[in-house]
Amino acid sequence: MPPALYNEWTDWSLVAKKKKSERKITIGVVDTMFARYDMGAAALAELAECPGYGTTFNVITETVPGFKDLAVAAKNMIEKRDAKIVVVLGMPGSAPIDKQCAHEASMGIMQAQLMTSTPILEVFVHEDESDDPVILASVFENRSRSHARNAYWMLFEPEQLSSRAGHGIRQGFGDAGPLSAS
């Protein structure tokens, strides 16, 4: 007969701490149906390449209709599913009203961050960033993957971000590069 795991002498506070420390950290990814590229798949593929995927952290996902729905989905992931960071991905169109709606969606995402005290990385690719569909697809892929990696670094390797500070690192297109005072 196996030994009892717990008895009257068990220190339950230590058991609770051990169980809590064994929990995986959750990263949330929310994408949209409106985007013309599967941004969520790109972000998930990048996170799957990060050390600790499936053991140290897990990823939860949700798809919403459009970018104006991202803020509440991210807030729900944080409050109801214990996400420690969320990457939200969307594509504003090229019309002036789309740009206005993107601004309003950004404000909602910022408010959700403040309400939850949790980072929500906004990843928007504007439809008019390139007229060439091949270039636009590469911007979608690069920006989605880069921000997913940034989310991972924020949680597990913040020194990766610090070492890149001031280097003009950009997600989507090529890096801008650093400036010098000389």
Write up what this structure looks like.
With 182 residues, this protein is α/β, with parallel strands linked by helices. The chain has a single domain, classed as Lumazine/riboflavin synthase (Rossmann fold), CATH 3.40.50.960. It contains six helices and four strands, in the order αβαβαβαβαα. Strands 2-1-3-4 form a four-stranded parallel beta sheet, sandwiched between helices. The mean pLDDT is 90.
CATH architecture label:
3-Layer(aba) Sandwich
Rounded Rg: 20 Å
Task: Give me the CATH fold name.
Answer: Rossmann fold
Shape estimate: globular
Helix content: 40-55%
* Secondary-structure element pattern, one letter each: HEHEHEHEHH
Termini separation = 76 Å
Give the spatial strand order of the biggest sheet.
2-1-3-4
Poorly predicted tracts of residues: none
- Number of individual domains: 1
CATH class: Alpha Beta
| Helical run tally | 6
CATH-level-4 superfamily name: Lumazine/riboflavin synthase
Structural class: alpha/beta
Please provide the count of β strands. 4
How is the main sheet built? 4 strands, parallel
**Content of β-strand:** 15-25%
Task: Note the topology.
Blueprint lengths: L11 H11 L2 E8 L6 H10 L8 E8 L5 H12 L1 E8 L5 H21 L3 E5 L8 H24 L1 H7 L18
Parallel strand pairs: 1-2, 1-3, 3-4
List keywords for this structure.
single chain, 182 residues, alpha/beta, Rossmann fold, four-stranded parallel β-sheet, 6 helices, 4 strands, 47% helix
Quick overview:
With 182 residues, the protein is of the alpha/beta class. It is 47% helix and 16% strand.
